[in-house]
Amino acid sequence: MSxxxxxxxxxxxxxxxxxxxxxxxxxxxxxxxxxxxxxxxxAERRPEPPASLGAGASNYSPAHVPFGxxxxxxxxxxxxxxxAAGYVVAQGIALFAVVVLPLVIALFLTAxxxxxxxxxxxxxxxxxxxxxxxxxGTIGVMVMLLTFAGQxxxxxxxxxxxxxxxxxxxxxxxxxxxxxxASDSQIDGYxxxxxxxxxxxxxxxxxxxxxVTTAVSHIVAGVFIILFGTYxxxxxxxxxxxxxxxxxxxxxxxxADSSGRIAWTSLTAFVRATVLVAATDALGIMVIAAILKxxxxxxxxxxxxxxxxxxxxxxxxxxxxxxxxxxxxxGPVVALVMLGGVVLVQQIEAHVLQPFLxxxxxxxxxxxxxVAIAMGVLLAGIAGALVAVPFAAAANAVVLHLADHARxxxxxxxxxxxxxxx
Length: 422
Prior knowledge:
Layout: H1 3-45, H2 67-95, H3 97-122, H4 127-177, H5 184-207, H6 209-245, H7 253-291, H8 297-307, H9 314-330, H10 332-358, H11 366-414
Helix pairs in contact: 2-3, 3-4, 3-6, 3-11, 4-6, 4-8, 7-8, 7-9, 7-10, 7-11, 8-9, 9-10
């Protein structure tokens, strides 16, 4: 190859590289300009946010609710909360009634016999032993009363059954020869329908034998709970109460303690006064039944004594048993006289004993007593009726105590403080 051809090749290579370099720089400048133009275009379409966002005054005004609506709403939701809490407590009591009711009865027995324990303790008897003696003595008295009543019923059962047969014959003769003028076929039809009712009820009773067995087991367990609960309430009542008080917040312990003591004072006074009223009712009806020579006098007295723990209606309802016994044993005239005696005793209780013995201790309106009894019956039957009124009285005493405490505290805060002497 000649020198000219080599020179020309080198020149053409340099020219090619120069063109390639210029094309690359041109492309880079084009890409840079395109990027700048694209950034400027985006800046025009999306303005930058302001440097700071200051919060201004709200343009919303609060809703003005009338005072009556506001007050009604406040009371309504609080009332709903209280009712819901009461419903939960009632359901809990109903669910654990087998345990709660025996403990309540043990509490009543404790309020009744704790003076005996205190007297024995002052006589240098250890409190545990004094409590055991008090519980044993209570069991002995109850067994003695039930034994005497059972013996009297067993001795007079045969005579009473004969009187029942005689009474049924008299009723048959009255239906036949009285104003109804019923025929023998009609009387036999009445007797047959009564027998059918008894037969059907017997079938239901047989079908519920398992329920009866369960109820008996609950009663036996309840008796043991009553005995042990009464003993421990008598022996360790103060320690149990201090344990309950310590559950409350520290700021509320003083008021919880004072409220509990007020409730215990009211409950103790109520139980003791009720025992006196029940004993008076039982004695009065027993005297009238003895004068009229009605059988089962002592058993009727025990029944009236137990029933009188339901204020206002208990003595009358239990006294109707004496009226029925008088009707079967002596006829309608003596039964009417016995009914008059029961009503007389009930009036003496309502107008003399209740105001003097319970009027100052339990400031509960008679309508409140009736409502409490009805709610107790719905919640726990006869046992609920027995415990409803004393607990209503205790709750009423606690409410009055807390209201007085709040009033005294408010008056102390509002009263001006005098100048201290210099």
